[in-house]
Amino acid sequence: MKGRRPTPAYGALPRQSTARHVINLRALDGRRAGSSLREIAETLFANSPIPARDWRDHPLRHKARTTLRRAGRLVAGGYRDLLYYPGKAPR
To answer: What is the pLDDT of residues 74-88, one digit of tens each?
Structure first.
């Protein structure tokens, strides 16, 4: 209408949320395939290998752990909440 771009449909997930869910599922697939936390972090988030001496306190280690936790919650039933976006699921 009048040269404007169409708006996203009501309830459509934002691109950032969609990208985050894709990363969550990729991390979970890697974990179930037997990859270590370090391999997952290097594959999904790092541009270069993480030195062994830095791994213990590396920010990507914490990011990978958080991603795996979030993915576990989604697979355990949290994905149903996506059906109610942007509202809240009834409890």
So the answer is: 899 888 777 777 777
